[in-house]
Every structure is written in structure tokens, then in C-alpha cells.
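User: C-alpha cells in, sequence out, please.
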């Protein structure tokens, strides 16, 4: 299967579902980062019930979803787990500028299987010999990008990268590594523990070890067939019903509370993968 078909396979599935909608039924095709899959499934269904609009959600890594939109020239909504991909989407002219809205905040954390069998307590422990670490692919997944930024900021990039046994294609896949006990730890978001509280636990990072806090952002693609309808969904996702669902699943919707985890961290902006990351992958000295 070539790379283009791999990118489009989930999108094709969503389109087949859309084709089942009646001729007069309104619908939205939503490219959604899987960092919010658990609450978004509830929110999308609530919106459908209240508005009578079908929402077809295609989950994946934020970067992969941008590629799918670019290849298909379709999409009514786009949500990324970090503002980095909103900037990329606007730069590639895939998103309508200034339509993005903040949805919630994500705190970077170490997630381990329940009981923490490898006794991971800090970022430094991830560099120990024999530790098996999972990360999102930093070239296509917001979580992976933040992971590299944190490791580089704490001067742990080289010693920890040697322990990465798998790079995943989405936040959801990264979380499942810890749930299934495939690794000793993952670099994830704090909310992963809320998704699967019986299977995993989270290790809080030292506040001064976090250079940047992520926020989830939603925007309107240039391919939106009804911008007013897309804006209505954005208003719903940032409104009181969705906020209650996000908070039920452990998401932080208030900036003041997010800053309690890292008072001196930046919020937002864009991070560019450092040259050292590629050099280490190529095993160059």
C-alpha cells in the first residue's frame, strides 16, 4: 500500500459513511486529532441530537490529518492537539486564517502501566538502560513534537531517544502502548490517565521541566462547504455543554489552572524539530 493510500484510508471510510446521509441531511466532515477522541465522541453525538446535523469524525495524528485534507480537498472542520499544526495548516493555505479557537489545554506527562513496574519517577529515569519508551511520531503527531521539545529542553534528547522502541501515528495509539503494557512508559498527556484509570497512571513532570503548555485548537478548512455551519459546531465545541464533557474526562479548560502545572511555561507558539533529532536518528556522532 503506497503512502498516499495509507493517508487516505481513514478518510475514505468517513466519506463512505457520509454517502449514506439523505440528500437533504446536513453533514460535517471533521478531521479531528485523536488527543480528544474520548470526549469528542460524546460531544459530536450531543451536537447531532441537538442540531440534527450528521458529524463524521476522522481521527488521527494532527499532521497526518492535514495531509489527508491536502490530498482530498475536503473537510469542514480541523482540530489539532497543539497550535503548531494550526500554524502549519494556515501556512499551507489549508485553513482559513484567524478562524481557530482554543478548546482546552494539555499538560505533558509520563504515563506508565498501573503499578509502575519499571519504577519511573522522572524524565531522567527514561534514560536508564533497559527502559522501553513509546512516543508519538514527532513529524506527524503533536504529542511526539512536544516530547522532543521537552527532552531537548532538559538536555535528555540523546540518552532518552536511544530507549524509544516505537513511534506511533497518533495520540490514541501512543496511549494504548501503556494500556497494553507494551512499553515501560510513554511521553503523553495527563488526560490519558483519565481515559484508562484502571490500566495506567501518570507521573507529573517538574514544573520547570515543561517549556511549553499545549492547547487544543479547532479551525475551519478552506474546503468547508458551509462556513456558517462549521462555525456553529466550533461554537458548540467551545460552549458550556462541551466544556462540561471535557472537564468530566479530565481536560483543563481554564488557562489559570493550566499554568499551575508549569507557571513559567509558554502557551502556544510553534516548535521546529531540532537538527540534533534527525542526527540522532541517523546514528551520527
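Assistant: Sequence out:
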Amino acid at each position: 500500500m503506497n503512502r498516499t493510500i495509507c493517508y487516505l484510508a481513514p478518510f475514505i471510510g468517513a466519506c463512505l459513511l457520509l454517502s449514506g446521509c439523505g440528500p437533504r441531511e446536513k453533514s460535517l466532515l471533521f478531521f479531528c486529532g485523536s488527543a480528544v477522541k474520548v470526549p469528542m465522541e460524546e460531544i459530536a453525538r450531543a451536537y447531532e441530537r441537538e442540531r440534527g446535523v450528521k458529524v463524521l469524525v476522522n481521527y488521527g495524528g494532527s499532521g497526518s490529518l492535514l495531509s489527508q485534507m491536502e490530498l482530498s480537498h475536503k473537510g469542514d472542520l480541523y482540530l489539532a492537539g497543539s497550535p503548531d499544526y494550526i500554524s502549519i495548516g494556515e501556512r499551507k493555505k489549508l485553513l482559513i486564517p484567524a478562524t481557530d479557537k482554543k478548546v482546552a489545554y494539555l499538560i505533558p506527562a509520563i504515563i506508565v502501566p498501573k503499578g509502575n513496574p519499571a519504577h519511573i519517577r522522572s524524565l531522567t529515569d527514561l534514560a536508564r538502560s533497559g527502559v522501553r519508551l513509546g512516543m508519538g511520531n514527532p513529524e506527524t503527531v503533536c504529542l511526539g513534537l512536544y516530547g522532543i521539545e521537552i527532552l531537548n529542553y532538559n538536555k535528555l534528547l540523546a540518552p532518552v531517544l536511544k530507549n524509544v522502541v516505537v513511534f506511533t501515528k497518533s495520540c490514541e495509539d501512543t496511549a494504548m502502548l501503556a494500556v497494553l503494557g507494551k512499553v515501560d512508559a510513554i511521553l503523553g498527556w495527563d488526560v490519558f490517565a483519565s481515559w484508562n484509570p484502571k490500566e495506567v497512571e501518570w507521573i507529573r513532570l517538574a514544573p520547570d521541566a515543561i517549556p511549553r503548555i499545549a492547547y487544543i485548537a479547532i479551525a475551519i478548512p478552506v474546503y468547508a462547504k458551509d462556513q456558517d455551519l462549521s462555525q456553529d459546531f466550533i461554537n458548540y465545541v467551545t460552549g458550556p455543554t462541551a466544556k462540561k464533557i471535557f472537564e468530566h474526562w479530565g481536560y483543563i479548560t481554564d488557562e489559570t489552572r493550566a499554568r499551575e502545572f508549569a507557571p513559567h511555561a509558554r502557551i502556544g507558539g510553534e516548535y521546529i524539530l531540532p537538527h540534533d533529532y534527525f542526527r540522532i536518528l541517523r546514528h551520527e556522532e
